[in-house]
UniProtKB/TrEMBL annotation, chains A, B, C, D:
The lineage of its organism: Bacteria, Bacillati, Actinomycetota, Actinomycetes, Pseudonocardiales. This is Formyltetrahydrofolate deformylase. Catalyzes the hydrolysis of 10-formyltetrahydrofolate (formyl-FH4) to formate and tetrahydrofolate (FH4). One of its GO terms (biological process) is 'de novo' IMP biosynthetic process. The keyword Hydrolase applies. Keywords: Hydrolase, One-carbon metabolism, Purine biosynthesis.
Length: 271, 271, 271, 271
């Protein structure tokens, strides 16, 4: 810690925000430093070069990255029919709260094409034929081509409803964020609100996590819950749940894009 | 209670939802009954005629209304520059969650004209010249004409930022809903997040209330809060607060339109 | 509904609180009426007799009970070493918030004997020898004798840490309340905070439920959650979780004793 | 920051936890470092001597303290009739969660004498005669003598219900913690639940703050809220509010004793 702080201080860096965490189980040490770019006498590339030397001295296992907030981060959003998460994200982009470059919205249905285009964002329709494994594989091939062409910093599954194949999970590891409409690990998989209604829980939840090959089992970024009672039908749960899905996804995406999330094993450190 | 239940039961009414509340301080009794229209052998007008007789027998002070959910309720939204509440409401309308007829959006700035029109909703620009009482009075006259022409069941001040004159408060009593960005009665008036930051509170809030002549003092419909800490600047509070403003306003509007809110004195019963 | 309301009204009953719920899936109808005893011209036994006739007319399947709040309800509390739930309950009894007759506290350790006796409540020590099935069976026999002798309206497993045999679950069905230190159905069974820490969840929870033969799978009465982050060790989670365990258990017990909980299948209606 | 981290690192200190905050409004910089005592080659007094030199070099305005967690912190608790906060604190002490030395409980009534003594803690009865300013002044003199004799690190007003005179506020500045039963700054002063009921708020709150001469206006340490509705009487609010009062006070006290709270002007940094 002292080594990193000294490096930044000696270079004249003005540290805006600093966070630390050490994990007693694995003896890993995590930190995030936010430095004013104009306080450093060199640019971001030179910073990367110099810091690489510091990191090397600290440990051969060091894993680090430097994000330049002066460059807009690139996002691709995958959707299906339900628009609440997309609406919410577009509203945040429009209001300046989420200062990103949405390169494309890709949907397996066209329901959300109009609202996307009203924001001047390209919408691509990639249908996923149900019960047709080959058709699906082809659709995923097309999808991944569209996504990769955008070189996204984040691939947001905003209620996308299709399970990504293991190959894409691996290729997009640490960049693909999903919103699952339950308080994981409860109610993995399909129709979580139906499962919640059947079990008679008194709170329903939403979970934003990184996508991994095992369904709904990736590192959890953010979660929240909302109260329900015996009077709430599945439809009421769906409606109430949307309000937390939106906030949990937007919060997770924001943290991801600001480099606040460090993944370690199957867990996250969120600074 | 038995009298109302008997009336509905004898008419064959299928009661979907029933709520009761008696106020020990004032001895008033409140109830809301939701009845399936097709379970009654007559229409809504006949129901009103018949129920009027029941109400007369119950008490000369009875105050009641019957809402026909088969008729879309009419809404006018007043906005300024900040779009998060408008985006949120339009998203809910688009997704079918808020099944209303948004007759118009009226703004004292044009920032939100495009998103409104993208939804096929008329946007009216009514500028309010700062520091010009006569100009403001004229603007309010124009505004009220536009609003009243729409015969709205709800007038939503979605971060409108102009204080309604007493005359409009009276004319729209029980129909005009405001979202105030604080946990009332804390931080009445201008710049509540600045006030909250100065006081060093650990939670910030939002309040949806009916508009009355006294600023931010009308009957409270719904409130919520979100956690902040010493690291949150005013700008952070503004950002975090938006997420509860949206949910609190949408929840309040939904309850209002479903006839779930009974105003009594300066308080609400929310069924 | 009208039938029950008419019966009470005709008898002159002053209804303090009334709740209704109809379940569209099973077509069951649920209600709870709270009536001022001194508003009725007869006593509770006569009320039971008369209401039995009403219930019979309503449906052969009717299931009902009448609680006399003038009679203190009887409670037995089962504990192990951890005292936070017991302390909390005793504090509520002492302060008059929980107006019950705690007949006994039974512990498989003696750690909580002193605080129990300081409240003038008998403490029974029933050790459960680990790894000795016969010894455990004998202990459960002794335990059930002590419990049944108290004729309790509620048997509270306040972090008791022993799994009740199926026979006791059946005998105490609808009267035995457990507090499980997770947000069920996540993290069933032993060491839920360890499980939660391993999975990296961002909220931990507590669940109060009726005890059934299947472990941690009984009807849920009440749940709540509290936020944790990457900096929280298992010990931190244990500490934070206690604060919600206490409140969730006390709330569930209160609702149970006031007859606010109607169990239907594996779910609860909580009025 | 680098200077402090270097000092600790050069001394071989193992930093368990580190927090930083810089206030852009005042340009103050705040930090808390938690170091394993056995990782340093010298004792706490030597640490204080050496760090004083570092602090002097950093700024003439530096304000710092070093807490030795090997020494139990001393607490005095002031109470009146309501026992829920005292019960809660004693339960936490008994369970080892709050590892402190409660030197005394002082009450202006004797209601809580028994439970205090059952824990082996001295209880002092100091009556405050109502409507007798001289009698009250004498009582405060006796109270302050008892408190000061205990040399407490924290003086906890656990629903004490007497307003401290300005002199005591000054003498105990930064050590006297109060729990106020509202979400400050709403409902300052007497009977906040009555005020909340009258205003018709939908959430009630509790606030833990440092005591200052201005009533209920000191630096806020911690706050929380709980939902209420139109059906909640003042008595219901009192009951529900207790659950958050307890948790908010205990959380604030814990943070205070661990040196996690830095007061700056009328605000707190809580690490």
């Amino acid at each position: 810690m002292a080594r990193i702080a000294s490096f930044l201080t000696e270079a004249g860096g003005w540290i805006v925000e600093a966070d630390y965490h050490s994990d007693p189980d694995t003896n890993w040490f995590f930190t995030r430093q936010e430095v004013r770019a104009d306080s450093l006498p060199f640019g971001v590339e030179e910073l990367r070069t110099r810091f690489a030397e510091v990191a090397r001295q600290l440990s051969a296992l060091s894993d680090w990255s430097i994000i330049d907030t002066g460059v807009k981060r690139r996002v691709v959003i995958l959707v299906s029919k339900e628009g609440h998460c997309l609406y919410d994200l577009l509203g945040r982009v429009h209001g300046g709260e989420l200062d990103v470059d949405v390169r494309a919205v890709i949907g397996n249905h066209t329901d959300l094409a109009d609202i996307t285009r009203a924001h001047g964002i390209p919408f691509h329709h990639v249908p996923f034929p149900p019960g047709d494994p080959e058709g699906k594989a082809a659709a995923f091939a097309q999808l991944s081509q569209l996504v990769d062409a955008a070189k996204p910093d984040a691939i947001v599954l905003a209620r996308f409803m299709q399970v990504l194949p293991a190959g894409l999970c691996a290729r997009w590891a640490g960049r693909a964020l999903n919103i699952h409409h339950s308080f994981l690990p409860s109610f993995v998989g399909a129709r979580p609100y139906h499962q919640a209604h059947k079990r008679g829980v008194k709170l329903i939840g939403a979970t934003c996590h990184y996508v991994t090959a095992e369904l709904d089992a990736g590192p959890i970024i953010e979660q929240n819950v909302i109260r329900v009672d015996h009077g709430d039908s599945v439809a009421d749960m769906v409606r109430k749940g949307r309000d937390i899905e939106k906030v949990v996804l937007a919060g997770g995406l924001r943290a991801h894009l600001q480099g606040r999330i460090l993944v370690h094993g199957n867990k996250t450190v969120v600074f």
